[in-house]
Write a structure and sequence with these properties.
Length: about 300
């Protein structure tokens, strides 16, 4: 990121409560909720025209990022990706000085830490946010947004953050919110992929995905009740606790074989079987299925 040149007007009096950079589906939802809550908002979007409806509801549209940043003491970045944040904010580093930057763009933990370091070097209070919600959930208590970074910024902004969704603070390390968010998404996407794989398997016998979903959804919902038990075993570190399904019993080669016999790529379930096989080969076949966690952990 580069630093802007020339005189900075960072001490000029802000005209609105908060600025939102980026008016995609999520950015627009964030602004809409703020307006509903009576906040004054300045908006900016790289592609002109997206602010029309929000301006009609009371938002101020800025012609440039610099103008948008100077309009408020708090700047929210809700952009496409990490590089978009760098490209957008780099030229206005001086204007950001003394302000609070809340980044809710999806980033990796290290990217969030990099932004926090950059912000700190330029006198900007940084808070990272990870949105666990779709745009329609913003403005309700249904969605969640995880935060990490400046505790002072989080505490000061909490009344505004609560306008959007349920807030949860994860500490001063700016990368923690992103890590929790992406870990949760990992579970979701692997669940969906498991459903897609199963639907592909039964398609060979003529069952529609809709029919399969009617059977799969209640089954998966029931199975999630076992997560708490698995979590307690993992945290306890004892995979020999009575009542667990053993790794030997959990051998999934028959599912892999059935998939291959139907001409369906077995890669989703084969990946799980590889983890099971690794632990069995290490002599843990009689221990519980949760033991595969040991093959996944960072210090494995």
């Amino acid at each position: 990121m580069t630093e802007s040149t020339g005189r900075s007007d960072r001490n000029s009096t802000p005209t609105t409560d908060i600025t939102v950079l980026g008016l995609g589906a999520m950015g627009s939802a964030l602004v809409s909720a703020l307006l509903d809550a009576g906040r004054s908002v300045t908006v900016w979007n790289r592609t002109p025209g997206r602010a029309t409806d929000l301006v009609a509801r009371g938002a101020d549209a800025a012609d440039s990022v610099r103008e948008a940043v100077l309009a408020s003491p708090v700047v929210v970045a809700c952009l496409l990706k990490h590089s978009s944040v760098e490209e957008t904010l780099g030229p206005v580093a001086a204007e950001l000085r003394g302000r609070t930057l809340l980044n809710v763009t999806t980033t990796s933990p290290n990217e969030a830490r990099q932004l926090a370091e950059w912000a700190g070097a330029h006198g900007v209070d940084y808070l990272d946010g990870a949105i666990m919600a779709v745009p329609a959930m913003i403005g309700s208590r249904v969605g969640q947004i995880f935060y990490s970074g400046s505790r002072a910024a989080y505490d000061a902004l909490l009344p505004t953050l609560e306008v959007w969704a349920t807030s949860e603070y994860h500490g001063e390390d700016a990368g923690r919110a992103s890590l929790v968010d992406l870990a949760m998404l990992s579970g979701m996407y692997q669940m969906f992929t498991g459903f897609f794989h199963g639907a592909a398997m039964v398609a060979s016998m003529g069952m529609s995905a809709v029919d399969f979903a009617a059977r799969q959804a209640p089954f998966l919902a029931a199975m999630t009740e076992g997560l708490d038990g698995y979590a307690k075993v993992i945290d306890g570190g004892d995979y020999t606790v009575a009542g667990q399904q053993s790794l030997d019993f959990s051998d999934l080669t028959h599912i892999v074989r059935a998939s291959e016999e139907e001409g369906v790529a077995p890669s989703p379930i084969a990946g799980v079987q590889a983890l099971i096989s690794e632990q069995i080969a290490a002599g843990h076949g009689s221990e519980g299925l949760a033991r595969i966690y040991e093959s996944l952990r960072s210090d494995a």
